[in-house]
Amino acid sequence: MFDPVEKLKEYVRHASVSADPQFKQGMLGAQDFIAGLLKEIGFAVEVVPTALHAVVVAKRGDNPKWPHVIIYGHYDVQPADPLEKWDTPPYEATVKGERIYGRGTADNKGPLMVHVAAVARLLEKNPDLPLRITFVVEGEEEIGSKNFKTFLKANKEKLRGDFVYFSDTGIPSPEQMVITVGLRGMMAFEIEFTGPKMDLHSGMNGGVLMNPLQALAELCASLHTADGRVNIPGFYDKVVEPEAWEREQLKGLGLSEKEYADFLGIKEFHTPPGYTPFEAIRFLPTLEFNGFSGGYQGEGTKTVIPSKAKVKITCRLVANQTPDNVKEAVFKTIRERCPKGVTLEIKEQHHALPYVVIPPDRSNTPKDQSPALANCFRAVDKAATEVFGKPPLYLREGGSVGLIADLKEVLGLDAVMLGLFLPEDNLHAPNESFHLGVMKRGIETSERVLAALAGK
Amino acid sequence: MFDPVEKLKEYVRHASVSADPQFKQGMLGAQDFIAGLLKEIGFAVEVVPTALHAVVVAKRGDNPKWPHVIIYGHYDVQPADPLEKWDTPPYEATVKGERIYGRGTADNKGPLMVHVAAVARLLEKNPDLPLRITFVVEGEEEIGSKNFKTFLKANKEKLRGDFVYFSDTGIPSPEQMVITVGLRGMMAFEIEFTGPKMDLHSGMNGGVLMNPLQALAELCASLHTADGRVNIPGFYDKVVEPEAWEREQLKGLGLSEKEYADFLGIKEFHTPPGYTPFEAIRFLPTLEFNGFSGGYQGEGTKTVIPSKAKVKITCRLVANQTPDNVKEAVFKTIRERCPKGVTLEIKEQHHALPYVVIPPDRSNTPKDQSPALANCFRAVDKAATEVFGKPPLYLREGGSVGLIADLKEVLGLDAVMLGLFLPEDNLHAPNESFHLGVMKRGIETSERVLAALAGK
Fold first, then answer.
1. Does 3.40.50.2000 match the CATH number of domain A4-183+355-453?
2. Which positions 244-303 of A are in contact with B (Cβ < 8 Å)?
């Protein structure tokens, strides 16, 4: 009998930090482990090299008449720093109470293990299951899936499935399953302001020139209206309003605005008019400042007017915005508003397309949807309702997972995303953990989903 | 014969960095050196301990009928870092061309040596010179003269002079002597903004709360008007307009606005209406941002909404402002303008009073001035005119030297400040140097001044 907790412990032992070349051994170890595990449960495994970390591709079933599900996962994890904040060793998964602690337990080794276990159990009972399954497990998700799109383009033939099915999104509580139906896109950049050619003494030269820090403040202050909207002409042009059913779903979150504010530690929200905070993080684009720097930042005083100042900004995008549309509007406005007396340089960074999928039987304006995709949504809804005792919620998330848009763009495949991690799982932080009850119910749900896809 | 260049080389050898406890030996060495040198030329020397670095007090002449000049200097220097940017060893003074290079050559070991040499030469010729001279050489100027005011209060009796005479200010060129007649004051503080209780993911939670960086930008952007004035009610209330003769003096700088802009590396000035840049840095108060920090500042992108953001600010003050007046107006406005959704904390830092002295025969509204002070101004004017071939300029400086205001406040003494360093001397920077021509002419000038004070 496949023991998912023991397998997860083995998997976590491989310190697969994709961002840091020192963890090359851990990356190879995790890759070997997941390749070996999939082979063990009957898959034909191929390790496909990329420019950096290889992708593990594993297949079972070759009857072209059978439905074909692509299950996505990633074997890389975030760095464990700061190590001193961990209560248990990050790479020795430790069960305490109803949780298993360790780096990657929730992101994404545990959730992937849920589907591997579901497949293993199902195939044990039905060795001839009429379902094609292809696992695609990449090693660069935590560094922006840099080579994944290239991999997809080069391996289109192998990946001609009906849809993508996976778990790398969240749920609000262990009792509430969520099908994630949208993710925000991203357009990241930084602006560097240059004033005088060198740092100046603020006594000798203060009060006669535009301080780059002041230019930064003036420009940044101009980018939002007092009511919290982004103050850039054209910014909202392509934004599609959510449908009534989407707003309705949010009631199922079971979280009051007061509880959310308390969780964040704020006294009041600053949300654009017409949207609750729960709606705003899912349905509205943003322009957020992620970092300011310039001048002296140490203890005490240094009377300097810095030559340069810098701001890092990310815009989150919603359907139907694209990074290119938004970039054009944002950069134009920024260039127009650059205060006199300084120059600015904009450096483009990471882009990701937003993603939305409309589950069947929901929208008033249904789009063409493949029967296989609709079938999967219905299978998940039924299985989750049975296992969790209540229907799943269909929610968008505020974060960005660019590879989902890549899968859609390159393979034409939509995604059925089964949420599995909780807000308190500490993803990307010390003491990351995965809820064992969610794991158990996740496996049961996924086993039923896969059985249903196979017509069982 | 006293050789000021050789003596300066010996003096520079003592690495007297007051800011760094590792340089204790250098501090004691410089203290001993200057004490020994003054003893050598006939002074009774006392080393007066303070809470940190001692003050060297040296006296000659005890006839109470003689005029009494207090000569101020400091034996401490700035750290020499970054060491790799020095072309010569910072603590081995090296003559190249018409300059002597080394840490402290210009600030303040060289300028103090000018007056020591002048005194030595004069006393060699006139051993019975009817002039009381007291050198007061402190060791904490580069760290804000922290204990100097306490020292002054405790040693008032020893320091009952007619005025203070010294060189720790600048000149525009080796051919143009300057008498510094004013310094700006200072009111330094920082503001910390706090939003959510922890750093947040800008995808999961972006667009619903006031980002502390945005609050910082909005508040800072509100603190100046578009025309470059400080936008705080009451900020300019106490400011006294300069007199016509002061504006007139600036023409003698021999620097065009274009040349000044080129030196700073800017295309245009941003100066409040009614003031040239040369006037604004001397006659107007400022509010300058010295540092912004908050969020992610490294390479690439980190999608964080930081819990905290911080800005460091210094206000430069002019007569008759005080740090307390200005603080009240500034802090009140900042508290009133704090954007909703964040809290702010203001941390007070360094204060310094502004200082202005009006030389005799200049102002239309002359103040009571001691005949001894007027006598010294006239002596400096005559000597500088003879030695430099043209009259000195009477200029205020934009910087702050709090101890001048302390001398005025505690001892009731005004200061006659003979400028000696040049813009290209690299004070506080690598490759600090002192111009040997200025040194020579400074000694000649100072010798004539002291002789005139003694009635010779």
1. no
2. 264-272, 277, 280-281, 284-286, 288-297, 300-303
For the entire predicted model, the pTM comes to: 0.91
Which residue's entry shows tokens 């060495």? B29
Its ipTM equals: 0.91
Same CATH fold assignment for domains A4-183+355-453 and A185-239+285-352: no
Fold of the domain built from segment(s) A185-239+285-352: Alpha-Beta Plaits (3.30.70)
Query: Under a CB-based contact definition with an 8 Å cutoff, are residues A57 and A46 in contact?
Result: yes
Nearest chain A Cα distance for residue B262, angstroms:
9
**Which residues contact residue A22 at a Cβ distance below 8 angstroms, ignoring those fewer than 6 apart?**
none
Write out chain A residues lying below 8 Å of B398, CB-based: 203-207
Spans of all domains in chain A: 4-183+355-453, 185-239+285-352
pLDDT tens digits, one per residue of B64-107: 999 999 999 999 999 998 888 899 999 999 999 999 999 999 99
Distance of CA A123 to CAs A6, A43, B65, B298, Å?
19, 11, 112, 48
Would you call A421 helix, strand, or coil by DSSP? strand
Please name the helix (run of DSSP H) or strand (run of DSSP E) that holds residue B107, with its range, or none.
none
Binary contact (A400, B203; C-beta < 8 A): yes
Residue among B370, B374, B356 nearest B240 (CA): B356
Q: Where are the alpha helices (DSSP H) in B265-368?
A: 277-283, 323-337
Give B203's contacts in chain A (Cβ within 8 Å).
184, 186, 316, 397-400
Q: List Cα–Cα distances, B223 to A81, A292, B135, B230, in angstroms.
A: 39, 18, 44, 6
Residues B117/B420, Cβ–Cβ less than 8 Å? no
What residues of A are annotated to the active site? 76, 141
E strand or H helix that includes residue A164: strand A163-166
